[in-house]
Amino acid sequence: MQEIFVLAHVPTAPVNEGFLPAARALGLPVVVLTDCADAHRAHFASTGLPAYPDDVVPCDVFNPLAVIDAITRRGGGKPAAVFSNSDHLQTATAIAAAYFGLPGKDWRTTYAAKNKAEMRRRLAESGIDTMWHAVVCDATGLAALADVPMPCIVKPREGVASQQVSLARSHAELAEHCGAIWARHPGQALLLEEYLEGPLYTLETLGDGKEIRALGGFRVTLSPPPYFVELEAVWGTGLPASVEAEVLDTIRRFGIGFGACHTEYVLTPKGPRLIEINYRSIGDYREFLLSDTLQFPLFEQVLRLHLGEALPALEVPKRAAWIRYFTAQVEGTLRHAPAHSQHERDGVRLTYQPLRKVGDAIHLTNSNKDYLGVLRGSGPNTAGLAAAVELASSKLAWEIAQ
């Protein structure tokens, strides 16, 4: 039987609790290719997991040639699909899928989406959206820049999870923020770009290479600057349909059209402006919330696209969804933390997922890595769901010993 090859770096909940069970539901064997084989094998040594892969194969998954070689050496003929949900591995996955003549994303687009400087260049070159930006790798390069607009955003060129992202309000702060990053990671490529003022939204899409469809989006609440930690997201932007249509047209012109895509944008006085194009499913447990809210097997649907099936007509129900993240405020050792819980009443379903365990050392990063836990919920209306989220939140408490 043809196998689905899933490229993975470290073990993640979306793969282990979402896509692996989805592949099982489709009746297909799964092989995990990973550069962290021991970590994956340790995870799958646990009992009571929703699904297990048929094999875990060590592979330099960042190298598409190594991926092609690992699949070829299996000797099973043409794979059923080559897939990854990792930000870092979309390009290697796209190249390998193209080699085997399988449905997949265009590797040039995955590369441009992941490399934020290349995304800005491609948008400007196509006349879609022009924004001031520059790439610097050291203090000399930074000093050579002229007319840097203030305030400005500092972020790693290939960063994730809001790590090392900050707002510099002056040239002195800019030098300080860049210097702090280079002290830990000498020579790291940093993208500087103009700051976009306005509320943050997302657009979630699915495509089969011929048609791309918007599922909807979240309104996102961020921590106060200079950092940009996502604290809460509410499904249903409340924006005019024309705004989402404009964002959809923008990413289509960029080259997005296959599989899942998670796009972030700011609604400025001049209209929506792109922040990031993440050419994979939304993360931080919102993929599970989205699956609950949409009331169709989202993980399975994504895999079906990679298996070559056409995008079906998808009816998006009028349901509310809410997710809240609880972040550490101090460093130390986690002494007390709420356990996993699930509650359903009056059509409202709430799930609390702990992300750190008692005994963990907590180090503040001013990023999504500071999450202690996440509460997600869906229900028939926003008012009832909001009340349920507030009540559940009031019962959660953590103790961190400094």
Automatic annotation (TrEMBL):
> What species is given as this protein's source?
Cupriavidus taiwanensis
GO terms for MF: ATP binding; ligase activity; metal ion binding
Which SMART domains does this entry report, sorted A to Z? GARS_A
Name-wise, this protein is Putative siderophore biosynthesis protein
Domain ATP-grasp, by residue range, is: 120-307
Q: Does the keyword Ligase apply?
A: yes
Q: Does the keyword Nucleotide-binding apply?
A: yes
The superkingdom of the source organism is Bacteria
A matching Pfam family: ATP-grasp_3
**Keywords annotated in UniProt:** ATP-binding, Ligase, Nucleotide-binding
